[in-house]
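From the methods appendix. Each design record in this collection lists the discretized structure first, followed by the designed amino acid sequence. Records were kept in a plain field format so they could be parsed without special tools. The example shown here is representative of the layout used throughout.

RECORD:
C-ALPHA CELLS (451 positions):
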C-alpha cells in the first residue's frame, strides 16, 4: 500500500489523525470518518478537448453520542483547530438532539478489514495520459464521420473509520472511467468503461462500440409504443441493478415495508434464471472492503435463482430487525437512505448478444437508458427513455434505428421475463458499482416515442 509520496496521507498518518480526534472528543462515544477524494477529469465535445480539471476534497465527519442522543458534523479542515471545532459542533448537536430509543450504540470491532487494490499510477495520471485516451476516441469518431463527446476520469480516495470502542479501518482506492458518445446528424452511440486502473481500460474497444452504434443510429424511424421484446446492453441493465439496490435490497426499505423482498426471504420474487449478489471485496467490481462504520462488508446473496435472500444492514437496522450486522453502512448524508448494496453483480449466462438477436422475431436492441425516475418504489416501476442507439429487430436481424422511446416498466416484472443472459459482463453505473451482462427480456412496456 502506497504511503505519503504517492499523493496519499497514508495509513499511519490517517490513524494518528483519527485517534487524536477520538482522544479530544468530549462525547461518551465518538466515531470519526475520513474521506479524502482526489479526482481529475478531461472532458471533450465536438471531437476536441475543452476542459481539464483536478480537485482534492478532504472531509472529516464526527458522530458524537451521549446515551441515546446522537449528533453529526463535518469539516474539510483537518488541522488542529478544524478538528477541535468539528468535535465540539457534533457534541453540541448531540446534547440538543432528541433521544433515539432505537440507537444501539456504536459498533464494536469485528477485526481490522483488508485494504482494497490500489493503483498509484492511476491517481497520479497526467492530463496528457487522459488526453491520449480522449484523443483516441475523437480520432475514431472523426474517421467515421461522427463527432465525439464524453469524458475520461481518474480518481483516488482514502477512506478511514475509527471509533472510541476500538474500530479502525483504512484503505486507499483508485478508479478510472471513460464515457464516449459518437454523434452524427441524426443519431448517436454510447459506451462506458470502468476499471480500478487506468491502464486496464480498453479505450479503443469502448470507442469502437460507441462509433459503431453511432454510425448505425443515423436516420431513425418512428416506432409505435407498445410491448416489445428487448435486448438490453449492460449499460442499460446497470440501471435495473441500481434501482433494485436503492429500492429493494436495503435494511431501511425492508424495515419500513416498502421493499419487494420484505417478508419474502426464501420466496421466489424474480425469474429462476436470475442471480444477484453484493461483494465489496471482489476486484472485478469497485471494491470497498468495509463500510462507513468500519466493519467488514460481508458478501450478500441477494437473489439466488430468483429467490430472495440477504439484505444490506448497518448497526441501526440490524438492531431494528434483530439480525446480524453485515457491514453496509453508508456515509454522512447518504446514511438517510439506510444501508444498501453498492458492489452489485448479476450472474452471467451463456448467450452472446448476436445469439439473442438471432432468436428474436420482433423486438428492440437498447444501448442504454436515460433520465430514469421512480414511479412506484414497492414494485420498482421506473419511467425513462432509451438513448444513444435504439434498433429494431425483425426475424432475427437488426433492421434499422428507431427514435428513442419512453418506457414505464416494473423492473421486477422485467426480471421475471428474462429469456437469455449474456456470457460477458461489464462494469457500469454511477454511485453504485455494478457488473452485469446483457439481458433479453420478453414484454417491455414502451409508452411513448420522441419526435
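DESIGN:
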Amino acid at each position: 500500500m502506497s504511503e505519503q509520496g504517492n499523493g496519499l496521507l497514508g495509513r499511519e498518518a490517517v490513524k494518528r489523525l483519527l485517534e487524536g480526534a477520538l482522544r479530544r472528543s468530549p462525547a461518551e462515544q465518538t466515531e470519526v470518518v475520513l474521506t479524502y477524494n482526489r479526482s481529475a477529469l478531461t472532458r471533450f465535445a465536438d471531437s476536441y478537448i475543452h476542459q481539464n480539471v483536478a480537485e482534492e476534497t478532504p472531509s472529516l465527519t464526527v458522530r458524537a453520542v451521549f446515551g441515546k442522543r446522537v449528533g453529526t458534523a463535518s469539516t474539510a479542515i483537518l488541522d488542529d483547530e478544524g478538528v477541535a471545532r468539528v468535535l465540539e459542533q457534533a457534541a453540541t448537536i448531540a446534547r440538543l438532539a432528541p433521544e433515539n430509543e432505537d440507537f444501539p450504540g456504536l459498533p464494536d470491532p469485528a477485526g481490522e478489514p483488508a485494504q482494497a487494490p490500489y493503483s498509484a499510477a492511476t491517481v497520479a495520471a497526467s492530463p496528457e495520459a487522459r488526453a491520449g485516451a480522449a484523443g483516441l476516441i475523437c480520432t475514431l469518431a472523426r474517421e467515421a464521420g461522427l463527432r465525439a463527446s464524453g469524458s475520461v476520469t481518474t480518481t483516488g480516495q482514502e477512506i478511514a473509520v475509527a471509533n472510541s470502542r476500538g474500530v479502525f479501518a483504512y484503505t486507499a482506492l483508485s478508479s478510472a472511467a471513460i464515457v464516449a458518445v459518437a454523434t452524427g446528424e441524426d443519431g448517436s452511440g454510447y459506451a462506458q468503461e470502468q476499471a480500478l486502473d487506468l491502464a486496464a481500460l480498453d479505450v479503443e474497444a469502448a470507442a469502437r462500440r460507441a462509433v459503431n452504434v453511432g454510425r448505425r443510429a443515423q436516420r431513425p424511424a418512428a416506432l409505435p409504443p407498445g410491448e416489445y421484446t428487448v435486448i438490453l446492453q449492460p449499460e442499460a441493465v446497470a440501471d435495473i441493478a441500481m434501482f433494485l439496490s436503492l429500492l429493494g435490497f436495503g435494511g431501511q426499505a425492508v424495515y419500513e415495508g416498502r421493499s419487494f423482498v420484505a417478508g419474502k426471504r426464501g420466496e421466489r420474487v424474480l425469474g429462476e434464471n436470475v442471480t444477484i449478489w453484493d461483494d465489496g471485496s471482489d476486484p472485478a467490481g469497485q471494491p470497498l472492503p468495509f463500510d462507513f462504520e468500519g466493519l467488514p462488508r460481508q458478501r450478500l446473496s441477494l437473489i439466488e435463482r430468483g429467490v430472495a435472500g440477504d439484505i444490506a444492514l448497518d448497526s441501526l437496522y440490524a438492531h431494528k430487525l434483530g439480525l446480524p450486522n453485515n457491514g453496509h453502512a453508508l456515509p454522512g448524508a447518504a446514511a438517510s437512505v439506510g444501508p444498501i448494496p453498492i458492489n452489485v453483480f448479476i450472474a452471467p449466462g451463456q448467450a452472446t448478444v448476436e445469439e439473442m438477436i438471432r432468436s428474436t422475431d420482433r423486438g428492440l436492441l437498447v444501448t442504454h437508458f436515460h433520465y430514469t425516475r421512480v414511479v412506484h418504489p414497492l414494485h420498482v416501476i421506473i419511467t425513462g427513455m432509451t438513448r444513444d442507439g435504439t434498433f429494431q429487430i425483425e426475424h432475427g436481424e437488426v433492421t434499422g434505428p428507431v427514435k428513442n422511446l419512453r418506457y414505464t416498466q416494473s423492473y421486477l416484472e422485467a426480471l421475471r421475463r428474462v429469456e437469455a443472459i449474456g456470457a460477458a459482463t461489464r462494469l457500469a453505473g454511477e454511485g453504485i458499482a455494478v457488473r452485469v451482462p446483457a439481458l433479453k427480456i420478453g414484454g417491455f412496456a414502451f409508452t411513448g416515442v420522441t419526435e
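APPENDIX NOTE: Confidence is low (pLDDT under 50) at residues 1-5.
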